[in-house]
Amino acid sequence: MNNRTNSHEKIRRMSMYALLAAVVVVLQLLSTYIKFGTVEITLALTPIIVGAAIYGWKCGAFLGFVMSAVIFIMGVSAGGAMIPMVQYNLPASIIVCFGKGIAAGAVAGIVYKVISKKSPVLAAFSASALTPIVNTGIYIIGMITIFNGYLTQGSTESSPILSFILLVLSINFFIELAVNLVLATVITRVVDYYNAKLKKQ
Questions:
Q1: Domain span at residue 146?
Q2: How many domains does the chain have?
Q3: Does pTM surpass 0.70?
């Protein structure tokens, strides 16, 4: 009986992983058509936070990987924004692209688990805030360190790196942050519903 229960739980977990991954893919594809300035808004962070809250940091990291894979594939496709970066440094492009997504998902799971012991609502808001911060923060760190030469080459601006940081930290980042915070209550309800459903079984 115990083995049957464990098998059922594994199937349920795999199904949820697949469902959340599909949502991440769809939302990230939609994100390519939603831009404020030159940087795309990442809509796929919310299902990543949901998965991380329910199943932990490993699920968050997996969903972050899925999001990063979509970003990378779209970025290197015909006319993709990442083509110049890949031509400049392919390994670094892969590390930055996948590193930020995986880290953001993992952090969401860790933060939610720690804080939810005291307050699930606060945990949802904290994870919702930190996920875009980590995602954007690693991107900025990678660009101003590994891709320093890429940002400055051929630039006529007095401070191209500062201009880049201000661009990323402008309306794009704050919209991502605002969207996640607005949906934090939804995330809390989804997690509560899922946990309540598990208790009934």
A1: 2-200
A2: 1
A3: yes
